[in-house]
Design brief:
The chain contains 4 helices and 15 strands. The structure holds 2-amino-4-trifluoromethylsulfanyl-butyric acid and cobalt (II) ion (CO) (2 copies).
Length: about 270
C-alpha cells in the first residue's frame, strides 16, 4: 500500500482521534500509582473509551502471524520494550511503565503513549524516561516538507546514543490514518538525507523505544506479543502522531494533560 496523503477533512478527523487518544492517558494518569494492576488500568481505559464513544484499535488486533491482541491498550513495565499485555501484577514504587493507547473515532486512528514513573524511581530510570522523551522531540522537530525520514531517525539515534543509551531496531513508527499501521515505516535510527521525502498531508507516528543497556530485544514467554530487552535492562518509549504541514509539523495527539515539549523546541 502506498503512503496516503490526508485531505483537510481527513486531518480534522485525525485531530479528533488523536486528542481523544491523549485524553484516555489524561483520564488514567491520576490512577497510575503503586498498587494498581495493569489490568485495572486497562479496565479504566475501556470505561473511558466507552464514555468518549471511541473504540480501542488494539482489542482484537491481529496482524499476520500474531494472535489477537487481548486488551484495550498496552502496558510495558521496566524491561518490557513494547506490546506488554495488562495483567494482575500490581505496579510498585520504582517501576516505570509505558501506557500506549490507540483509539478509533469515525474511522480515523489516533496513537500515543507516555511513560509513568511509579512513586520515586531511581535516578537512572528517571534519566532514561526523560532522555527518551527528548529523543522523540528531537525527531519531531525535524518534520517539515522536504526533510527526509532518515533525518528523523538520525536525530533520535544521535541524541539517545550520545547519552549512552541504545535504540531498538525491530519496531518503528508508522503511517496512520484510516488504518492503524500504514506506510511509511518511521525508523528511529538512520542517516540524514536518506529515505522518503516528507510532504504536506503525511501523518505518521514517532515512537522511539530506547534501552538503558544493549539494543537487542526478544519475545517473552508465549503470549505472542510481549517484547523485552535481551539483557533485561530498562526500556522507555513515548509516542505522538504527527502531521506534516506546509511549513513544519503538527502534533495530533495533544491534550490538556500532555507534558510540555522540552525547552529546545521552538527555542
Ligand atoms: N500502539 C502500538 C503502536 O504504537 C501498537 C500496539 S499493537 C498491539 O504502534 F496489538 F500490541 F496493541
Ligand atoms: Co504507533
Ligand atoms: Co502506540
Amino acid at each position: 500500500m502506498p503512503i496516503t496523503f490526508k485531505s483537510v477533512e481527513d486531518t480534522q478527523g485525525m485531530r479528533t482521534a488523536g486528542r481523544l487518544a491523549a485524553e484516555v492517558l489524561d483520564y488514567l494518569t491520576p490512577h497510575i500509582k503503586p498498587g494498581i494492576t495493569t489490568k485495572e488500568i486497562d479496565r479504566l481505559a475501556a470505561e473511558c473509551m466507552k464514555k468518549q464513544d471511541t473504540v480501542s484499535a488494539t482489542l482484537g488486533y491481529q496482524p499476520a502471524g500474531y494472535p489477537p491482541y487481548p486488551a484495550s491498550l498496552c502496558t510495558s513495565v521496566n524491561h518490557v520494550v513494547c506490546h506488554g499485555i495488562p495483567n494482575d501484577k500490581p505496579l510498585k514504587k520504582g517501576d516505570i511503565c509505558n501506557v500506549d493507547v490507540t483509539v478509533i473515532r469515525d474511522g480515523y486512528f489516533g496513537d500515543t503513549s507516555r511513560m509513568f514513573m511509579i512513586g520515586d524511581v531511581s535516578i537512572a530510570a528517571k534519566r532514561l524516561v526523560n532522555i527518551t522523551y527528548e529523543a522523540m522531540w528531537h525527531g519531531i522537530v525535524k518534520v517539515k516538507p522536504g526533510a527526509r525520514l532518515g533525518d528523523i531517525g538520525w536525530a533520535i539515534q544521535k541524541f539517545a546514543e550520545g547519552h549512552g543509551f541504545s535504540v531498538v531496531r525491530e519496531f518503528c513508527g508508522h503511517g496512520i490514518g484510516r488504518n492503524f499501521h500504514e506506510e511509511p515505516q518511521v525508523l528511529h535510527y538512520g542517516k540524514p538525507g536518506t529515505l522518503e521525502e516528507l510532504k504536506p498531508g503525511m501523518t505518521f507516528t514517532i515512537e522511539p523505544m530506547i534501552n538503558a543497556g544493549r539494543r537487542d530485544v526478544k519475545e517473552w514467554g508465549n503470549d505472542g506479543w510481549t517484547i523485552v530487552t535481551k539483557d533485561h535492562s530498562l526500556s522507555a518509549q513515548w509516542e505522538h502522531t504527527i502531521l506534516v504541514t506546509e511549513t513544519g509539523y503538527e502534533v495530533m495527539t495533544l491534550s490538556a494533560g500532555s507534558p510540555p515539549p522540552p525547552p529546545f523546541v521552538n527555542a
